[in-house]
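Form 7-S
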Amino acid sequence: MMSNMEDTKKLLELRQEIDELEFQILKLLNKRARTALKVRIAKGGTNIYRPEREAEVLHNVAARNTGPLSDEAIKTMFQSIIYVCRAIQEVKIKKGS
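Output:
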């Protein structure tokens, strides 16, 4: 059994790992948003929303999901990401992005 000091040290290490993972996720989300802007340019600024493409993305991420998150949880998260990236295609949200 670990002492309180060891528990605290382990908890701190785990929190630092989560902080690093969150930073990596943040960088990837911003990279995805920049790519969505490039897609808008490639489309000539028209026909931004393609439901069949969204369905394909959701199918692909669920098919590659190895857990512990459920497929539905993954789909929900990616639906949010897609929604925000679609919005950024319509209006650039933050300068310098």
